[in-house]
């Protein structure tokens, strides 16, 4: 079966080997005569999948035992509400760093629940959100309950090149589009969360990693299914969890471990990103829009500078089996998302095509 | 591949034909070279799946155009919060009918958001929750924003044998364990919701059918992803929806239509339920625990009256390929869930086994 080179920003490509294993267990899971999706929730096989997925992620990310791992639903979007509902204390104060649409969205949602401030923003950069603001401890209110960042921005193709120093204030990070692309020092964060459909698995699952001492402060009107403490106490089985997505994620975690873990993912991610950025930097036809100090390694955003050429590029690339290269509709242009399942070969093919397209479509001098 | 007879209460059995189609599209969806799970959210193929699933459900359930169909996440449990958050008005008053654990849970959750009353309960029946209370319009507060019921109860194996008359007050029904087992007059309800993992598809999806005039009253602090109006305005794509579950549900809806729609599902469901209940009623060894006027057609709860025999029954049945027959841990005994994907033949095999087990395991006279 011919698989295309899929540069989708989300849902992203999944490892072919994982999809094959899912396929082989779809009608009969490990010889039980029923799918893993048809296991009764109270069965030992069902909870084994959930526990094994957690254990595999803990090993992969080296998550300390005082951090809880929760499998939730609703994507990053529901976490935009769950974070303030769970973490705001009596004074209800939190600080947000704005680096694009996702962080703006997280900020607007949080404002429903407290006194939320913008500690820093790259909205004033030129072009807007092409960089990530540099912050220091003094940018944050000392009595803030937490500081929130989107660790990388999918639309603008930026990423924090440093971990903000927030002192004793817990740092909360949406890592949806960069999780599992490199090792992360979990202890620098109060909460890390990520929707699955970039580097973890299928849409419909959210991974939340939360420091144990932050549990138990939820607003009384927090929906039970969004309450970190209840989710922890029920081992993420407060109700029937999305077992298909959890099973697939478990296979992804195990696959990454087989390949060499997050050090190896980092090596591969940087190799792919360097190939593409180096090519872009060495020629005048394409431009990468993100500030070179803040470039995302997983979402490379670039343009010819001409909307008509960009559209032609995307269409012709698709005909070559290089698909989902359109940029987000907010800013247009192109975006090559290179999550773990995108091969080095895919990026080589992309660069070849970019070269060829530039030669065949000279820009009109104006 | 040998598939067992799966009587799981949830996640329930899925149609083999649907699982085969999922399997065949798992690595390359309709020849596109990528899985339906790897389609970019902004692609036309992605939104086509969501729209086709909605259309198929509308046809199947004959949903009038003034009702909105939403695909959400978080199961029935998140709806226990979403319903009061979306429907309570200024006076924040709603009435609940309690018929078991699910409705108790829904009630407790709603109490976080307003003045919630128990209009009727079958908790005082003997045994508790073996029946469904009969109500009349006078049981409900005239200024209640809605009346909530669980249309069938999975634990106790009961079902409303009538639709409560609530006058002008919108009736909200959790139909998780009976949806798609028979035609329903949607116009009698303000909101119908159901988690997918019984009769719709895999866990991780919730179907919400809401009358249009009930949109737009959500509390200001309702998480956006739980806001019915925002979900409607975005065609259930406010963020990336659980596309795997939606695609599978679409195939289930189409499969049911092929088989003859909900009239045919009702005929089949009643035929299966009659076979089992008639057998139970005609012999003294097993007893069905639900009041005969309020029996669920999809969750048949029964017992030998002897915990030790019940355990032996469940274990020996499993050895025969009749699996997931244990009752909910709250009440023990046996439960045969017979959703649309459970064949008549499966129930025949079950009855055969029940007969044989009774002969081989005479009860000790006490």
What does this structure look like?
Chain A has 366 residues and is α/β, with parallel strands linked by helices. Chain A has two domains: 16-258, Aspartate Aminotransferase, domain 2 (3-Layer(aba) Sandwich), CATH 3.40.640.10; 261-360, Alpha-Beta Complex (Aspartate Aminotransferase, domain 1). In chain A, 34% of the residues lie in helices and 16% in strands. Chain A has nine helices and 14 strands. In chain A, the strands form four sheets. In chain A, strands 2-10-9-8-5-3-4 form a seven-stranded mixed beta sheet, sandwiched between helices. In chain A, strands 11-12-14 form a three-stranded antiparallel beta sheet. Chain A has a two-stranded parallel ribbon with strand order 1-13. In chain A, β6 and β7 (158-159) form a beta hairpin. Chain A starts with a strand and ends in a 6-residue tail after the last helix.
Uncertain spans of chain A: none
By DSSP (H or I, 4+ residues per run), the number of helices of chain A equals: 9
Computed CA radius of gyration of chain A, to the nearest angstrom: 21 Å
Largest sheet of chain A: 7 strands, mixed
CATH architecture of the largest domain in chain A, by name, is 3-Layer(aba) Sandwich
State which percent range the strand residues of chain A make up: 15-25%
Mean of all residue-level pLDDT scores of chain A = 96
- Shape type of chain A: globular
Strand order of the largest sheet of chain A: 2-10-9-8-5-3-4
Beginning-to-end CA distance, first to last residue of chain A: 46 Å
Compute the number of strand runs of chain A. Answer: 14
CATH level-3 fold name of the largest domain in chain A: Aspartate Aminotransferase, domain 2
Q: CATH homologous superfamily of the largest domain in chain A?
A: Type I PLP-dependent aspartate aminotransferase-like (Major domain)
Q: What helical percentage do the residues of chain A reach?
A: 25-40%
What's the CATH class of the largest domain in chain A, please? Alpha Beta
Class based on secondary structure composition and strand pairing of chain A: alpha/beta
Instruction: Estimate nothing, just give the exact number of structural domains of chain A.
Output: 2
Oligomeric state as shown: homodimer
